[in-house]
Structure formats: C-alpha cells, structure tokens
Design goal:
Elements lengths: L1 H6 L5 E12 L3 H13 L4 E5 L13 E4 L9 H11 L6 H8 L2 H10 L3 E2 L15 E5 L2 H10 L4 E5 L1 E9 L2 E9 L4 E12 L29 H9 L3 E2 L8 E3 L7 H6 L4 E2 L14 H13 L6 E2 L6 H14 L1 H9 L9 E5 L12 E2 L12 E3 L11 H24 L15 E2 L14 H15 L7 H15 L8 E2 L1 H17 L8 H26 L10 E2 L11 E8 L2 E8 L2
Parallel strand pairs: 1-2, 1-9, 1-17, 2-6, 9-16, 18-19
Antiparallel strand pairs: 3-5, 4-5, 7-8, 8-9, 10-15, 10-20, 11-14, 12-13, 13-14, 20-21
Helix pairs in contact: 2-6, 2-12, 3-4, 5-12, 7-16, 10-11, 14-15, 14-16, 15-16
C-alpha cells in the first residue's frame, strides 16, 4: 500500500507561512542565531532544516575540541594574523577580527548551555596549542538544538528542504521548499532571511569507492545548497577557488589534528624522514608535502605515533571513539595500535567550505550579503577562514544583531522592505500553539510548485541521480583538479570540465522522482552542479598557484605577488561574471 502511494504521487499539498525572521539551515550557526534572537527579541523566528536540528550539520556526531579560542597570553589580532597567513593573504581582516573578538565569549556561553570543557587543575581550560581547547563534545549539537528550540518565539520546521529564495526587486522576502518526508510545497515569507547552510561536499570523486564513498571528511549531505541559492539569485560570491582538501587518516578519513597536536606527532615518509620540515607549515602546506612525497616516490606518509606512551595511546582511543570510531576500530582490528604502528595519512577530495577557507557569499562586517534582506554566517559566509565551531557561533551572533537592527529600520521606514502579501496569501503562526495553517501560494510560488511536481510526473528516466552524481564527480576529478591528478589542473582541462558539467545539467532536467526523497536527491544534485560551475570559473580566473596543495594551476605554477586580489563572481543571464576586488 505504501509503495502504491509513492508511485502515484503527482501533486503536492501547499502550505504558505509567514514569519519575521527565516533561518535557512539548522546547523551550528542556525541554532545559535535562533537562540540569540530568542534571548534578545520577541520577533517570530522560523528555522527550516532539511534533516532534524538535533543531529544535523557538521556537529552531528560531536567534536572533541574547539579549534578557535584565544588562549591567555594571545589576542584576537594574533588569530587574525594566523588565519590570514594560513590563507596566504586572501582573507578579510575586518571579518576575521570581528569574529575573533567573540570566540571566548561564545565559548563561555556554550559552557553555560551545558558543554563539558576539560579543565586543568587550576580551573583553566585544557588547551591543545595556543588557539584551541579540549571538550567532551558528543552532545554539542543536541545542546545547541535545545537552546534554539526552547525559545518561545522560535519555531522549527524539520525535514523541509529549501531550494530557492523569494526574490522581489533585489530583496530576499522568503524562500520556497518542499517536505522531505511528506508531499508538501512550502512558500515561506519573511521580513529578513539568514542563510546558514553548509559548504559543498560530493563535488569530486571521493577516496573510497562504492558502499564506502560517503566515508569522507565533510558530511556527505552538505551539498552547497545555500551557495547554489545565492548564485542563482545573483548574489556576489567570493574565493571559491580556495578549495579545502583535508589531510586525514588513510581509509577511515578520520581527523589527524588530534594526533598531530594532541601528542605532537610529526609527519614522516617511508624513509622515516620528517618531511614537514621542508614545506610550509600551513594547512595547505602540510597537504602539499604529503602529495609531493608520494609523487616523488618517498611515500607512504605517516604521522609518527610508534613509541608513544600507554597513556597517550588510551587518550587517542577515547578521543576517536568520541568523534571517529572507525579509526579506533581499525587500530583494534589491525592488532597494532598507534603506539606500535604509525598512522598512514592521505589527502581527501576537494571541498568548498567557508568555515575552513574563504569561500562563500561576499558580505560586509554585519554579515549582510549583496542581496537586500539576506544575511549569511558560518560555512556559507565567505572571506573569513578558520572559523570552525566557535567562529560560526560568533558570526551567527553578529548576523543576528544586525538583523534586529535591520528589522528596526524596516519598522521605522529607514530601509529594507516588508514582504508584499495579503492576508489571504499568508498564514501566520499561532503564537500559542504554533499551528501551521494552509493557504494559496503567490504566482511565483505556483511556478515553483509546478517545477517540483514536474519531476514527480516525469516518465521514468534512463539515468538516475546516483549515476549523474558519479558522472559529475568523474568530470571534476579528471579535469578540475581532483585526487587523480594530485589536485592539479590547467585552463584546457577546466574548459572541458565546464562544458561537460553544463551538458550534465541539461541532461538532468528530465530526471524522475518517485518519492519526496527522490526529489530531494534531484535538488541536491542541482545544487552541486551549480557550485561546480562557479568553482570552475573561479579556478580559471585565478591565474596563479596561491595555495600549493589546495589548487595547483599547472599553467601558472607559481604565486604571483601582483595577483593579491579576491576572485568574486555574479551569475547573470545564464553566465558567470568574474569580479576582481582588491584586498582589504
């Protein structure tokens, strides 16, 4: 019976909603922004999340450290200098500083919410290096989700996938989406919108094939949805070419930082030489050294753990059980734990993620995007690398405060626009029971609803989303600097990649969705393809190799000191226009 209902699904139920503030994405930044807005205002806040905020986003499985914190004896400016140096100058100092100044404040707030932060005997936080601290963070996401959802003015829509902004006269007035579990079309009107979705994984062929392909560094469900929505709406984007490629434990793709920093393990090659001494000690430099050692025949490469103490080994077992249990299981299965066997390392496929690099929306100091009424924070916001968890929280707070000022200006007629709608078009949340009511969508909403229904009504296609995704990953891997080419690419290859990705976009228009989950996969593929094209355009526009390891342009193999610019872009009339902006 259930299968029969799924196969005959053609039409979607309609729900049209209204709120003051719409938050798209219920991850780290989304939950914290809602918490701040709940604490400081009585505006109606709606979180739309395609999964469930309790265990969604990059913190779903927890973390064992907060990687952005200012240890005593250091200053926010020290963090700015570190992040800008690691990005080889391509980072916004204004954004880095405003973020860094709040790192310790948001950490203290996390502790008040219940996060367990490890302490020294004197009561100070247990540090791991000068800019991060140790935590018991398995429950960090449930804590943030509870903090957000228990605010009296916050409503959560779980399992709703947002695909497009409602855009009128250059102003974002809400968004369209559909239910992941139920056949429902959503048209959500808002006075202001915060985009806090993730970066993009799954663009390139991953390390592991087949069943294990989703064993990757960044969550496989992070598709670059917010990027794609901004690109298609004409927002200015920045620095997509600063890809992030993680250095990880081989096969399990577990983090290496806990080993490298926790026990000060050095990188060694097959000859047991500490090769990291010959390369830049930056994030990309550590990857580059590993790639070069393997390319020149001195691999495999490892983190030197053999000989560590029994106590250190037990600490590693516990740490990885907390965040990457597959690594602990591998040690036990191999009958050779880290004290007896060095840990082999490798690079992952490339990602586009603004939490580690500077990729994302071009924003101002208040985290406003170039689309009026739209703010961005966390992984989707560009210009501010090395955010990690606490940086995402800091940006969420900055954006929330700016949105409150924006709403105040709207009410006083100083700027911004209230969504155009009449009472028949918009159903409000009941402030007492938060009941969601139905009503008719606007004209543009009908068009978007028909678009969704078209996929549900298409004839069964010869190609499905999984096959199309594999084709996309193969194209990017071969022509746009994936693992296969040691992250190297050239102009001709990028042209091939763009041509093939555009053709793939055309071919996917006829995909067929039997269920709402199928429809979700189609739009996730759409998002990835949009991000791929923008990424390719950015890579072609930076005619130098700025980040050895992250992006090797073989036509321009050296860094050009005269090319210290941001590579930005804007999508107009079906074309990606490149904009060069001076550093600031």
């Amino acid at each position: 019976m259930q299968t029969e209902q799924k196969t005959t699904l053609k039409k979607l139920e309609t729900k049209v909603l209204s709120t003051d503030i719409l938050i798209i994405g219920g991850g780290t930044a989304g939950c914290y922004a809602a918490y701040i807005l709940g604490q400081r205002s009585d505006y109606r806040v709606l979180i739309a999340e395609k999964a469930n905020i309790r265990r969604s986003g990059c913190l779903a499985a927890g973390v064992n450290a907060l990687n952005a914190y200012i240890i005593e004896g250091h200053t926010p400016q020290d963090y700015v200098d570190y992040a800008k140096r690691d990005a080889y100058g391509i980072a916004r100092e204004d954004l880095l500083l405003s973020m860094s100044e709040r790192l310790n404040e948001v950490t203290a707030e996390l502790e008040r919410l219940g996060l367990v932060i490890l302490k020294n005997e004197d009561g100070s936080y247990a540090a791991r290096g000068w800019r991060n601290i140790k935590i018991n963070g398995e429950n960090i996401k449930p804590l943030l989700a509870k903090a957000a959802s228990t605010q009296p003015n916050v409503t959560v829509l779980n399992h709703v996938n947002i695909t497009d902004y409602i855009l009128e006269d250059g102003t974002v007035r809400g968004a369209y989406g559909f239910g992941v579990d139920a056949p429902v079309f959503y048209e959500i009107h808002a006075k202001t919108v915060l985009i806090v979705t993730s970066g993009a994984a799954g663009l390139y062929r991953p390390n592991n094939p087949g069943f294990s392909r989703h064993k990757m560094w960044y969550p496989p469900f992070n598709t670059g949805a917010g990027y794609a929505m901004g690109i298609l709406a004409g927002a200015e984007m920045t620095t997509f070419e600063m890809r992030f490629i993680a250095l990880r434990c081989k096969d399990t793709i577990a983090p290496v930082g806990t080993i490298a920093q926790g026990i000060a393990a050095s990188q060694i090659n097959a000859k047991r030489e500490e090769y990291e001494n010959y390369y830049d000690r930056t994030t990309s430099g550590r990857l580059y050294g590993t790639v070069m050692e393997n390319r020149e025949g001195r691999g495999p490469c490892y983190l030197k753990t053999s000989g560590i103490s029994e106590e250190q080994e037990m600490d590693l077992y516990r740490a990885y059980l907390n965040m990457a249990p597959s690594q602990t299981l591998k040690w036990l299965e191999d009958a050779g734990g880290p004290a007896r066997k060095d840990v082999e390392i490798e690079g992952t496929e490339p990602y586009v993620v603004g939490g580690h690099t500077a990729s994302g929306y071009w924003i101002d100091a208040e985290r406003k995007t170039t689309l009026r009424g739209l703010f961005a924070a966390g992984d989707v916001a560009g210009g501010c690398p090395q955010k990690y968890v606490t940086g995402a929280l800091a940006e969420a707070e900055i954006a929330a405060e700016a949105m409150l000022r924006y709403l105040s200006d709207v009410s006083e007629g100083k700027g911004g626009l209230v969504p155009k709608a009449n009472e028949q078009e918009i159903a409000l949340f009941d402030p007492d029971d938060r009941e969601i009511h139905e009503s008719a969508p606007g004209e543009r909403g009908f068009a978007k609803k028909r678009e969704y229904e078209t996929y549900l009504s298409n004839p069964r296609s010869l190609v499905d989303t999984e096959q199309a995704e594999e084709a996309m990953q193969k194209i990017m891997d071969q022509y746009a600097g994936g693992i296969r080419t040691d992250y190297r690419y050239n102009e001709r290859g990028l042209q091939e990649a763009d041509q093939k990705i555009r053709l793939l976009q055309e071919q996917t228009q006829g995909l067929w969705a039997e269920t709402m989950d199928d429809l979700l996969r189609i739009y996730e593929l759409r998002e990835r393809l949009v991000v791929c094209r923008t990424l390719i355009a950015h890579m072609a526009a930076r005619k130098e190799t700025r980040w050895h390891g992250f992006a090797e342009n073989t036509d321009y193999p050296e860094t050009d000191p005269g090319f210290e610019k941001y590579v930005n872009s804007r999508y107009r009339n079906g074309k990606i226009e490149i904009i060069y902006r001076d550093l600031r």
